[in-house]
Amino acid sequence: MSNAKHSPDLLFEVSWEVCNKVGGIHTVISTKAQTVTRKFADRYVLLGPDLSHEGVNPEFEEDPNLLKAWRQSLYNEGIRVRVGRWKIKGEPTVVLVDFSSLIPRKDEILKSLWELYHVDSISGQWDYIEPVLFGWAAGVVIASYVETFGTPTEKAVAHFHEWMTAAGGLYLRKHAPYIATVFTTHATVMGRCIAGNRLPLYNDLPKFNADELARQFNVTAKHSIEKMAAAYHDAFLTVSDITANECKYLLGREPDGVTPNGFENDFVWAGEEYYAKRDEARRAMISVAEACLGEKFTGDPLIVGTSGRYEFRNKGIDGLIVVPCEGADEIIRDIARQNIPLVLLDREVPDLEVNSVVLNNRRAGYETTEALIRRGFTRIEMISYSMGLSNIREREEGYRRCMQAHEMGENAVIHHLRHDKFAKIEEIIREARQRRVEAFLFATNTLAGQGLSAIFRNGWRVPQDFAIACFDTNEAFDIYKTAIAYVRQPIERFGTEALDLLIKSIEQRDKPGSCTRIVLTPEIVESAPEEALRSAEEAVTEA
To answer: Contact, 331 vs 324, CB < 8 A?
Structure first.
């Protein structure tokens, strides 16, 4: 038989990642859409979740007039959809399905899955229930589409990706068995759990009891629906031979075929477009890093990045060097609980014993403040962030201790700013001028840059009107040619010490031992008073 004889007349493809970029399946589907659309044209329809609920989806362009009467008939049945085009090459037809109307019926739907296929949903939480409702709704939509637009002689195929959509194929098997169903798993639920928990997945595959392990890892519901999908879809596929072997032992069915992921030849941009996209992505990554870390990067920083959601081990990562950002404490604690080799850099998490490389920030805050006091300043205030990060809080503590040690504790004032509220710095400095404040200690170089800008905008001078001290240098210091007392951090030692610690931790991961805390000594860089005055006068002259 020729392949053409078995080519479907209508092809549906369902994924949680249609117009919803989460992981690799988004790439798999979007990069083949041009070829599939070329072959099937409008007889190829993609279905994804309408998570924005009629709001703006940057990947989706709605066409209110497309299939308008059919959409209304679905709405009358309690299913709301939007129809349009996916804004990728090929511009395939997309139906976004709002499954929220099925939430009141969730118990009925889960009961049906148990009675028809023995899908055990009893322990499933909302991260299981929502995808199941979406899959079920997608099945309803496909059945309605075929009934409305298909003919008795046309062959329709519905292709479902991953367990998140499997309920759709199970729905069609019961309610529209004339629609052929295909289920593809890209990586099994249990395979992810086994690998993520440091068990020897491929060496011990025949020995694993997947159902029992699913109970241990609390993924019974997800494993159950995936296993039943493999058993009850008309065709069961996966994307590699190694995953096919995984399916044989963990799902109890050998796949009917292996369909390796493929990409269009123009998947990666070429020429000038490539460099433009690269520069745009680089700017975005640096912007995110600056927002998370509360610091400004100058020059051409080196970026080391990886992608693949949160599955550190499954993506081949042996260990992590982490610079904690605000609100990340629980994530870092979870990484530590998983016994993933970990080194914290520059900041620490309260009451968590892990390897770390940090600066002696209390000493740095103390000595930088003292550098201002040695110049004769007594009314010194600090501008800091309203963050709970350990390095920021320790710098503040060092400032307070120094002011108290020099019997200036009554003058110690710390102004806290949100990282996105820099405009308030100018208000703080103007008010401080009225109170005869003589100097500022800035908790970061970004704050120092913003402070210097505010000072010079108001016509004040450094150090005649305000003396400045801070942590690290800033490109604004060169722009304004003003002398600054600042903390120089041993950046290279941070990197080498952290990497050495991580390598040792990876090598000894199975040997319990104490954690290592390396505290680096800050260097205070201070210009001579005459140099400070000369630099300030030059800055005023040039301004």
So the answer is: no
User: CB-based contacts of 171: which residues, under 8 Å, 6+ apart?
Assistant: 135, 136, 139, 140, 143
Record the tokens describing residue 138, joined without a space.
Answer: 């997608």
Give the three-class secondary structure for 237: strand
Give per-residue pLDDT as tens, 74-110: 998 889 999 999 999 899 999 999 999 999 999 999 9
Q: Where are the alpha helices (DSSP H) in 268-328?
A: 271-293
**Alpha-carbon span 415 to 353, nearest angstrom:** 31
For all residues of the chain together, what is the average pLDDT? 88
Q: How confident is the model at residue 535 (pLDDT cuts 50, 70, 90)?
A: very low
**Helix or strand run (H / E) with residue 158:** strand 156-161
N-term to C-term CA, the chain: 83
What is the separation of C-alpha 474 from the centre of its chain, rounded to a whole number of angstroms?
28
Contact 391, 361 (CB under 8 A): yes
Residue whose C-alpha is closest to residue 252's, from 176, 185, 344, 181: 185
| Cβ-Cβ contacts under 8 Å for 215 (sequence gap 6 or more) | none
Judged by DSSP in three states, 25 sits in helix
- CA-to-CA distance for 518 and 482, rounded, in angstroms? 34
Q: Among 106, 162, 94, 93, which residue's Cα sits nearest to residue 133?
A: 106
In contact, 161 and 14? CB cutoff 8 Å: yes
Report d(CA 93, CA 265) in Å as an integer.
Answer: 22
3-class SS of residue 82: strand
Residue 511 DSSP code: S
Query: What is the Cα 543 distance to its own chain's centre?
Result: 43
Q: Is 309 left (phi over 0), alpha (psi -120 to 50) or beta?
A: left
- Residue in 388, 289, 395, 288 with CA at minimum distance from that of residue 329: 388
What are the residues facing 94 on neighbouring strands? Answer: 46, 84
CA distance 96 to 59: 11
pLDDT tens-digit map of 411-457: 999 999 986 677 889 999 999 999 999 999 999 888 888 898 899 88
Strands of the sheet with 355-359, listed across from one edge:
320-322, 342-345, 355-359, 517-520
192 exposure class (CB count in 10 Å sphere: 0-12, 13-18, 19+): middle
Give the three-class secondary structure for 327: coil
Q: Cα 148 to the chain's mean position, in Å?
A: 41
Instruction: Indicate the pTM of the whole model.
Output: 0.65
